[in-house]
Amino acid sequence: MKNTKVIMTIVAAAVLMAGCGSTSENDSSEAATTTTAVTEAETTTTTAAEEAEPETEEETSETEEDPFGDEYWESTERLIPVTYEGDFEYDGVTFKTLADVFTAAGDDPNVGSSGNQFICVIENDNICARFIANMPADMTQQLYDLDIFDDDYKQKELDLVKDLEIARVDDLKAGVPAQEELDKYNGFTVSELADAGFEMSGWSIVGTEGEFTFDNGYYEYAVTFNEPLSEDTDYNETGATDGLTVKSVTYSQLSYNAFNTDDLFE
Fold it and tell me: pTM of the predicted model, to two decimals?
């Protein structure tokens, strides 16, 4: 009988311990659930804050002061040419084929090719434009096969493409800036000219004076500086133009970019 009582006591204790263990697990589960909820809330708050950050940056960038101002950026619209598809008429003359263009260009047309486009650029008192024709693949190859060292190369080139119809004309005359627009660059540094789209392509210096050539879009400009120059300086080297400020910017002619048609037919 004594043994039976001891066994019952042990069983009761075991049941009690089991009950306590179950309660502990439930408490832990509830605590874990609470922790998870808090973590999710923190994550949601953090995510919302992160999503809000770009909007703050955009608002900041919109309110940043533009060093050039609206008037300057409006003037850069002149770099966009007036474009015509197909026939182009100027001063009563209609241009339908490259032969018409070559005639208007005179004895030595300024021509070139880029990919399968053939380009002729005219810049005179009446016309400032580039005329573009599309070459078929076989003609592109024939043009490529011509011997550039042949004395008659230029004439053979013109004869090969003269019957091509004009696909596009970019009238660049309207984009040539007035001198008063260019005077706005006086006092600029070379770095500021670069920010405005100008790219230095050469210079000519005698003693301490000279002028630099800069390209901007389809146009080439002569730039002089207030500071003395040096014939012995390589102005392509980093920092060589530091300290130079613009004295004058004047339009020279259409730049080599007029023969680059990478910006077309994209």
Answer: 0.62
